[in-house]
Amino acid sequence: MYVAMGPMNDDNGSMEMEQDEVAQLINGGETEEVLGNVDDDEEMAKIQQAIDMITDKYVDEVDESKLVEGAITGMLETLEDPYSVYMDESTAEEFMNSLDSTFEGIGAEVSMTDGRVTIVAPFRDSPAENAGLRPNDKILVIDGEDTDGLSLYDAVLKIRGEKGSTVTLTIERPGVNDPIDLDVVRDEIPIETVYSEIIEEDGKSIGVIELSSFAEKTATEFEEQLKELEDSNIDGLIIDVRGNPGGLLQVVEEIGSLIIPEGEPIVQIEDQEGERMRQLSNLDGKKEYPIVALTDEGSASASEILAGALKEAGGYEVVGTNTFGKGTVQQTLRMVDGSEIKLTLFRWLTSDGNNINEVGVEPTIKVEQPDFYYATPLDFEEPLTYDMSNEHIKNAQIMLAGISEFDPGRTDGYFDEETEEAVRGFQEQEGLEVTGEINEETGTRLQEKVIEAIQGKEYDLQLDRAIEVIVE
Amino acid sequence: MYVAMGPMNDDNGSMEMEQDEVAQLINGGETEEVLGNVDDDEEMAKIQQAIDMITDKYVDEVDESKLVEGAITGMLETLEDPYSVYMDESTAEEFMNSLDSTFEGIGAEVSMTDGRVTIVAPFRDSPAENAGLRPNDKILVIDGEDTDGLSLYDAVLKIRGEKGSTVTLTIERPGVNDPIDLDVVRDEIPIETVYSEIIEEDGKSIGVIELSSFAEKTATEFEEQLKELEDSNIDGLIIDVRGNPGGLLQVVEEIGSLIIPEGEPIVQIEDQEGERMRQLSNLDGKKEYPIVALTDEGSASASEILAGALKEAGGYEVVGTNTFGKGTVQQTLRMVDGSEIKLTLFRWLTSDGNNINEVGVEPTIKVEQPDFYYATPLDFEEPLTYDMSNEHIKNAQIMLAGISEFDPGRTDGYFDEETEEAVRGFQEQEGLEVTGEINEETGTRLQEKVIEAIQGKEYDLQLDRAIEVIVE
């Protein structure tokens, strides 16, 4: 399941369906009542017996309502579907309230994976991105509180907070040994989900549309901005869904109908019985200019539908890295006591009928960003100096090699003379005290430079390649 | 929960009670029937509704008996007690069978922690220990199969197998970055749980009794071997429970009565209502010689009772490191359909009434083993050579520094000239090709030397300190 710590108001950033869409898919227009169909007394008796044993005999007092919630959570876990989750009454209510009010947070999409709150993608230029959070970071601790046993919703509520306040997240990053502490300053998360610009290259005008999520108004805004670009006679279009965690199914279908060739399937929806429903594009003909999709490992759900459709139904290039791999659609179901189950109801397949769950959409042109995009923020327990060897030095070397003209010569974490020379060069250029050591000041500057470089797109190899494809 | 992959026949190595003991504690002799006492229809209705929603609407077909098992597992998880677990009918049956037959395995105690099968302690001189498994190693993969979602019992059944066959375990070790592959050759696990010897030091005879677990015959054997030692007029006694994962409550009470001063409490048992029952030693007086307990982080459950009693009721020294911290007693309860719940029924407290759960028993004299005891087995994807820097080099340096006369000068993982010199020295001494590189041959020899050193006890700083205490 995804929960947006972002701007969503009436959806939560995952691939969700509107109530009427669901009703239509289930039984052609009428909303079905949830009726009991399990009268297997033996199985309920077994659950009853377990509850009795535990409450009677367990060494400590047992809270029965906790047991019931544990039972539901345990049942959902057997589905092995990270997107099907339980939310108790008070959490469900609190969460709805938090969505109603003006939203202030860190701007990242999270899911629950292996029992830990996990970053799917930080939003573009959000506090989360600026602090260095990355896809697949696991959040272990929020402001000193262990997230173990915390539900996704409870975790999100703790991460959110007033603009300007700071939340400290301790994260585990794949391939990194020690947990990392990151201070994230909360901010108001902008509600705009569509950004566009025109890039001129080799005498050609290339329109770029970035989609940060698929929210209610995203399709309308996309249509307006696409029209503006077309009025400027663009020679090609790049659609950037990197770091876009998804959103509403209907919205991606609408956007697909604006760019996918006439009559081609944008997406296929499959239900419990394996019945498929295809959604076809009602564009008039085919766009005259080439289109390229930009994807990365943070492109999830609706982003993957769009990238898959551009690739398979449009025959367009997809540049970047493999997408996240979320191929299911959820809906929130309310229980008798006000608690909720968010359940995966449908699977979606790409235009050609490929199931991308856990697999993702493979780009037609694979381009990784430079290594420093993936470097871990430095941790300054002590200055890094000559002849030391550790992971922080490795990250500093990758950053120096990537964004400065001072090449440390190696990126394996050993601080040799060449590294020292590179540090001196960087310090001199930046007007810092020239010590040859990576102290807190030098390290902080180095990281600022990395963030600037990423935001300034001067090393955005994926975008560069997409532009090349259109200019060629 | 503990499950012995060891020699246990009618217990499974955890702190368990016999049926009659339990009955006595609960209601003075009569075995209580498990009766229903929850008739809260609302709560059962909620579970029923969740089952209906999931089976009706989930995108895939749902196995209802799996759901019920998930519900029970989920309820037990709310207890946040790693020792309370569910076992389905076939697993329970298969497990009983595997305990009946001659036992062949790897010789290690495991528990389920954070959803992963975790080593509590390898048995002394077992295949597990010889392969380099250590307390708190998490088993991620067994012969290529991910353990995620596997129950503890299913995992144990996969790890066990015919003598001479090999099982490959992929483990995650705290503080180590990448998963480690270990090949463990299964063997018959010896059934003896008591070993004793006499060490002569400074003209004094010191009896040493090692207890590898608290099994049915352990107390009788302990009594016999203690008598032999006493007939040899020992001047002191060392009781070594390092790496001892526990066993039967009754057995540790019997052993306590052989060495804890007369009338002192060996252990206190506390039930759900907080009622405590003290078990007093019926020794005649007090032993005339000093006693020292040896503990480490693999000393769990019954081992901790014994160490705690020696420390608190006997006033004896405890040498080594903090114990594991398991302060509860389980019993297996059978359900209507043959499945079982193993449930924590009681808490035990030390002689002075201290709760050691998750805390362990602190030694009175803290002694760590040399660093090489804790070094990670090397992994030979490529030879380790001059100017490289990584974790494998770090471990090799720790081993060289610990068990050879060739000191690499640093143990931070950077392969400098001094390290190369040390490798050459070691290769020369061992009659290996002198290359200055740690290739597979050199690394393997180095690790053999480490295992020899650990088994030969020549660097056993904890034992040395215990001997000193008695000789002083």
Q: What does this entry look like structurally?
A:
Two copies of one chain form a homodimer. With 472 residues, chain A is an alpha+beta fold. Among the domains of chain A are: 105-188, PDZ domain (Pdz3 Domain), CATH 2.30.42.10; 194-329 and 346-370, 2-enoyl-CoA Hydratase, Chain A, domain 1; 375-455, Muramoyl-pentapeptide Carboxypeptidase, domain 1 (Orthogonal Bundle). In chain A, 33% of the residues lie in helices and 22% in strands. Chain A has helices spanning 19-27, 41-57, 64-78, 89-100, 127-131, 152-159, 218-231, 249-259, 302-312, 391-403, 417-429, 440-456, 461-471, and strands at 3-4, 85-87, 104-105, 108-113, 116-122, 138-142, 145-146, 166-172, 180-185, 187-188, 194-201, 204-211, 236-240, 265-270, 276-280, 291-295, 317-320, 328-334, 340-349, 365-366. In chain A, the strands form four sheets. In chain A, strands 1, 4, 5, 6, 7, 8 and 9 form a seven-stranded antiparallel β-sheet that branches. Chain A has a six-stranded mixed β-sheet with strand order 11-12-13-16-17-20, sandwiched between helices. In chain A, strands 2, 14, 15, 18 and 19 form a five-stranded antiparallel β-sheet that branches. The radius of gyration of chain A is 24 Å and the shape is flat. The relative contact order of chain A is 0.11. Residues 1-14, 26-39 and 97-102 of chain A have low confidence and may be disordered. Chains A and B meet through helix 2, helix 3 and strand 19 of A and helix 2, helix 3 and strand 19 of B.
